[in-house]
Amino acid sequence: IKCNQNIEKIHIKYSLDRTLAFNVISKLNVPPYSNSAVDGYAIRYKDYLSNAKSYNIAGKSTAGHPCNKKLKKLDAIRILTGAILPNGFDTIIMEEDCIVKGKKVTLPKKVKKNINYRYLGEDIKINSKVFSSGHKIRPQDIGVLSSLGISYIKAFKPITVSIFSCGDELINIGTKLKKGQIYDSNRVMITNFLIKLGCKVNDLGILKDNKNSLIKKLNNAASKSDLIITSGGMSLGDEDHIKAIIETIGKIHVWRLAIKPGRPVGFGTINNTPILGLPGNPAAAFVTFLILGIPIIKKMSGEIVKNIKKIKIPINF
After folding, report:
1. Alpha carbon distance 65, 68 (integer Å)
2. Which terminal residue of the chain has fewer beta carbons within 10 Å of its beta carbon, N or C?
């Protein structure tokens, strides 16, 4: 299974659920300067060690408006959240823990150095790797990219998946059932999985159990798709043609895995286009798509594929 190598540049506001094609390296520190994490009063901790009981409120620093006054020993400044600290000021005490009288502020006992102090680069350091190639963008990631001043990213283009169900007994929802017919639920289910995974979907509908027609449809789909997914027709019955067709015009790589529910499921290629043949049973199609389909699509889309979590449980047979 090869990763899609088609890459495009997109604005981050359109990047949700897209997969990064390159590592994202920070070009700045976040935060870009040391600042206060709370509203309160900032001091030099070395002044506090002199056992001074009160300090002169010599100025004020707010976000975007730093205090530029020349400050003396035992000076404190009123500081608001996100504001820059003057040189040498390294400790901030929350305002509710202070006593203010006029231009004097008295601090509580047992103040710790560097409390409520956000260091330059504390969240993200300059030249550090923020996201790896293969990372799928989430809403919070767009916030991080914005904080770094990044407007555009390079992402893998969505893959195109052709999907169809196979069987003379299948009909589309919205049509009245006749004797021997059932509604096609697999194609609708898998299509919505594909949309959720960020794929472009080419819905070929329901194909009848006609070998020549199926060969034509599969060849056409292979020329226009990155991946083909079928449902039904993978067994060895007289009217199950999909496996035989893949073996005739392509190659089967995997068939009849020991999985329950899930047999028969197959994976192969037609004209170098991967094809995943799911069972016709809806529960089996669901399980096999989760275990096989999703990792295949993630791999082809350039996304990092994480190991499936396995849990051992007792069985009753």
Report:
1. 9
2. C
